[in-house]
């Protein structure tokens, strides 16, 4: 099939349930062009994205994101990279907070489980005894 979008885009390829599906070619008005696989309207499978600025991305796509390069090498997940950096940033900020006293002043205890199972009751008793000693 073929679709001429109200935004000036043009798609030629397969459709399933009114969405791009299978092999196709999507050309945007700004000059961006994607040729390859689609699933549920998003880039999927092998494909090539040529951007308006002349850059090119080739590889394996899933849910509209490139996950492997043209050689098959896995690409880093930007969300995962960001989350890994958050731990370091949090540690840096916590070190900036001055300690009010050398001893710990706040404890939090969360227990979950079925109260009919003895293991949870024993854990609660152990934690209560431990906190009582401090």
Automatic annotation (TrEMBL):
Gene3D superfamilies: Histone H3 K4-specific methyltransferase SET7/9 N-terminal domain. This is Peptidase C13. It comes from Pseudomonas aeruginosa. The lineage of its organism: Bacteria, Pseudomonadati, Pseudomonadota, Gammaproteobacteria, Pseudomonadales.
């Amino acid at each position: 099939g073929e679709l001429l979008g109200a935004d000036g885009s043009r798609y030629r390829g397969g459709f399933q349930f009114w969405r791009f599906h299978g092999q196709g070619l999507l050309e945007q008005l700004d000059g961006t062009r994607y040729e390859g696989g689609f699933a549920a309207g998003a880039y999927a499978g092998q494909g090539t994205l040529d951007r308006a600025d002349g850059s090119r991305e080739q590889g394996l796509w899933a849910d509209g994101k490139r996950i492997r390069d043209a050689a098959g090498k896995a690409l880093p997940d930007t969300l995962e990279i960001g989350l890994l950096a958050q731990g370091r940033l949090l540690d840096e900020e916590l070190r900036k907070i001055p300690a009010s006293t050398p001893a710990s002043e706040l404890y939090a205890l969360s227990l979950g489980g079925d109260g009919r199972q003895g293991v949870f009751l024993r854990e609660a008793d152990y934690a209560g005894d431990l906190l009582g000693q401090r």
